[in-house]
Amino acid sequence: MLYWFYSYFEINILQYITVRAGAAFSFALLITLFVMPRFISWAQGRNIKQPIYDLAPESHQQKASTPTMGGIVFIGATLIASLLTVKLNNTFVIAGLLTLSLFSLIGIKDDLSKILKRKNSAGLSARAKLAFQVLASLGIGSYLYFSGANHELFTPFYKHAVLDMSFFAPFVWALIIVASSNAVNLTDGLDGLATVPSIFALASLSIFVYITGNAVLSSYLLMPKMVAVGEVVIIGSALIGALIGFLWYNCHPAEVFMGDSGSLSIGAFIAYMAIIAKSELLLILIGLIFVIETVSVILQVGSFKLRKKRVFLMAPIHHHFEMKKWAENKIIVRFWIISFVSNLLALITLKIR
């Protein structure tokens, strides 16, 4: 809508991505802050509450009455704010909105499965959930590939592509999207634990995407150039605003959980931004907390299957520290600090190429 105002009424200030990104941030923040308390009341009245895993630490049992599926609100706010501010004929914008929508729908299906089963926190079967994620990711990857997206692979600290993925690109991108989506989902186990690292990651990737889409900045910083990707910064900014609004109610002690409807879509969109910013490998550093959480689960499962022994008291690793009697706030804030530092290091790579 704002871009239409620029085109039709020649309001020049509205042509700038930074201006419309600021507007999208504000819209999404305000919508989330307004709608979320009403959603919480509605969810409590209809018993839409988070089932708690039987083997979870004792402190989690008191969270059994906390409403879930808050992701519907902040993803909805992001989509509305984006539609009001972006240039809707942009290929990368369309793919970004599809990424958020498809993975949120998968999450909604999973959340509803958990809620309807009441005493079962499993939700969709692992195969069904993964199948939906793979199909959505391949669709997004294929759309990008046939839309002419750059399918070269870049590495930090080096200005040239290290590999041309060619027709394998959609499959590599799908793998990254599925992995990132599930990594954020695994991290979302404590109040605000996944929310703030997601904000940090989105902020860093918005910078990378903006530079990649800007001819002058990308040339100066020796970054790959991709025409028109900068518009996606507006969606990233909207999601950051929505997540900040959500954090108001999700900080410890949480009044609402995001559920899979939020975590799956956040992870998928983070991966999508890394792909169009040609920062697929750098995503390991940008999403370091998500990587650590995922690796802890892989190590735990692998060790138990091969050696019948556990590496951690409980996985993902934030539960390990809970079992060691760390206060929940201490775990959360320390993980936030790690995420903040890792994102600062990722941004430093902009000047070292």
Q: How would you characterize the overall build of this protein?
A:
There is one protein chain. A two-stranded antiparallel sheet has the order 1-2. The two termini are 38 Å apart. The protein has one domain (2-351). The longest helix is centred in the first third of the chain and has 29 residues, at 17-45. The model has no long low-confidence stretch (mean pLDDT 92). With 353 residues, it is an all-alpha fold. It has helices at residues 2-9, 17-45, 71-85, 91-117, 126-146, 169-187, 195-212, 215-220, 232-250, 260-276, 283-286, 288-307, 317-323, 328-348, and strands at residues 152-153, 163-164. 65% of the residues lie in helices and 1% in strands. It contains 14 helices and two strands; from the N terminus they run H-H-H-H-H-E-E-H-H-H-H-H-H-H-H-H.
Detail the topology: elements first, then pairings.
Blueprint: H1 2-9, H2 17-45, H3 71-85, H4 91-117, H5 126-146, E1 152-153, E2 163-164, H6 169-187, H7 195-212, H8 215-220, H9 232-250, H10 260-276, H11 283-286, H12 288-307, H13 317-323, H14 328-348
Antiparallel strand pairs: 1-2
